[in-house]
Amino acid sequence: MPASIFLNVAASGVLTGLVYGLMALGLSVIFGVVRVVNFAHGEMMTIAMYMAVVLFSAYHLDPLLMLLPIAGVLFALGYVMQAGLINPFINRPEHSQFMLLVAVAMIMVNALLLIFGPDARSVQTAYAYDSFQAGPLIVDAAKVYAALAAAAVAAGLFAFFRYSLLGKAIRACADNYQGALVVGLDVRRLYALTFGLGAACVGAAGCMMVLLVDVTPPLGPSSTLLAFVIVIIGGLGSMPGALLGGMLIGLTEALAGLLFTPSAKSMFAFGMLVIVLLFRPQGILGKSAS
Amino acid sequence: MSGHWFDGVSPRAAKLLTLLCVALVLFPLIASDYLITVLILILYFAYVGQAWNLMMGFAGQLSLGHALYVGLGAYAAAALYVHFGVSPWIGLWAAMAIAAVAGGVIGFLALRFGVAGVYFAILTIAFAEFARLAFDHWPWVGGSAGFFLPVANYASNDLINLRGSPTMFYYLLLAMTAAALVSCHALLRSRAGYYWLAIRESPEAAQALGVDLFRYKMYVVVLSAAMTSLGGVIFAFYYNNLFPEQVFHISRSIELILAPIIGGIGTLFGPIIGAFLLTTLAEGLGELMRLLGIDVPGVKQVFYGLCLLVVVMFLPDGVWPPLARRLKLEQQRSQGLAER
Amino acid sequence: MAALLNIKGLSKSFSGLKAVQEVSFEVPAGEIVGLIGPNGAGKTTCFNLIAGVYRPDAGEIRLAGSRIDGWRPDQICRAGIGRTFQLVKPFAGLTVMENVIVGALNQVGSVRAAQGISEHLIEQLGLAGKRHAAAGSLTLPDRKRLEVARALATAPRMLLLDEVMAGLRPTETDRMVALFRDLNASLGLTILMIEHVMRAVMALSRRIIVLHHGQVIAAGAPDEVTRNPAVLECYLGEEAL
Fold first, then answer.
1. What is the pLDDT of residue B2?
2. Which of A75, A164, B325, C106 lies 20 to 30 Å from A67 when distance is taken between CA atoms?
3. Which of C51, C98, C137 lies nearest to residue B336, judging by beta carbons?
């Protein structure tokens, strides 16, 4: 097989992987701070994707342009979920909180099924069939735009956590819950904000993802699973890890689809997950638990 | 070991239980075929829910990939029957063995490498998904196109090959669920039962009292897997078709944990009550929708999700404990092991 | 008297912090030995090393002559060492009786037999009236008693008591002291106890070992140790001896 095909497929995979990474980033942020496993993560992205589809088919608005409003809606959703559903039960056992989100995920997926039906929907932008060429490398324009947007949003998130006061307050909560309480931080509100941020992240990712794949309700649960796989491989609680994990999964999926059958591509992701869970449970960039 | 079955059960509960048993045995004589199929569903979910409950409720290990064992059991027995003409009564031993090995592998990997809590749950999901994809590409059992058992004459009941009317499956499942109930009751009172509960409450304290965590966690994982696989055998022979996409799918795994969670994790009657409530309410909802002329996919699942949400939020111990207290079925114990 | 527990050169560090350094001491069979020292001296770490919760970085731990370092906690329990925890860990959802049965199952195989043993211990520890109460509903002194009953149910040759008297009123402390003295006298139960409550240490211990910054700074009879200038120095500012 000529090397150029490998190269193209790999590049395509990495670009898609950046979007995966952004999606997983949201999950990582939520787990890293609130210590809640958001089982409805993929479903939230699917909601954003459907929003983009509706806006596009009704008003011909490019999903990438709709990034901010859609992310905003998801932020509100996430905030309300944390404030209304999770915060009141924060002292419950771990599996209880988990089941709460499983229930929310079920409701989300099936509500989408109710409203939109099982058929696939997609967004056909003007540049859907364009591509960029650099030497032997040919990549879809849509993938490039999506990847750039993902990188931009991720950078924005990094900057927020690094430099803003609010970001530092959130990181303080994550590092030391009691300490944060002691210095007077309103931890519950910060948790809600964080969940909102994670949701906004995944909402943004949805706007990009809709350029890359068709959306059906079952995409929700499979994306949630994928986000988990990425976050565990990259390192739970590590933001760069989520992006790295995403790109890694995007790459392996693309190559597996090329070398084996496309439908078996996620088998490799799971294989990697099992290996990581066994031999390096903190993930590639995660901190080792002492 | 005499009187063991009713050890710890209050007289009132024993009476109610006997009444219920009699009612269930006589049920097919008066019920319509449709109702029998509904009850088959209830019993199926009660049975596999109880099997899952062993791991979660007794030993505190959350598995979200239990459909793996259902699927393995189903395919094992079905393949042996279709390809070699082996009766499911023999096939079920193969089913249990395969599921036990799978459970053993997952348990071993998880325990030796310290994968616990949420990570363990995700590991179980990953294995089920892996199986789904693997079976999708395995032609010997039909691959993604499905695996089919020759459909038989409903009029005659062939118990050896499990070909027959729903009534036959009803009594089979009834016997299985009753046996599961009795065995779990006995298990809870055994050394293993005490150790499992100890592990669930505080693994460190359990260790300090001589409990070998690895061994007892492995027991429960393997036992739960084997028990679940029998449900899979029934599944295969009742529905006569198997698709990896359906059998191993994560929604199957979640479906089978709804009943024990809603009924009450860690209780003996929880899975049964939960299965009963969920199935009857769902069927009722389905009937309502038929009457109203609404035919939309997803309504039942939204309903399940709402039920789950409400129960997890407001009835964290499930429906059974408060119900049992109401019916005064508890002996003067507070959260003891008996009739929880 | 022969040493039941023999520790030589025990060391353990956590991320560079030397919690226990070259600690050596003996606990003769049938004796009660106190392990004292300021907070952070490494006492609980020692216990956790003996009980198998941590692996030592260096050193040997011998029980009746055989090495047990590196064993798992459940193996060490089966070998005959029982322990209580500084922060009690009851099986909250189980009754008092069921808690003790779990311990008793270490020495017998059947639940029936375990029940008999547990009944006796529950009475001995003064919990008889609460045998069917959920462990999670007990007061702290009762939880401590339960912890002790549970550990005793495993039929240990030696008991590791980690600050069992903390939080108890003087009368309760005296009751516990009397119980341990009794068990020691009647069963020959060897006890190694970490304590801050000096009243209990002085009343029970035949020997006291003092730890400071992970090292043994004194060991001997209670009178000697309490007059030792090094010991007094490390306790300056601590509860008066």
1. 32
2. A164
3. C98
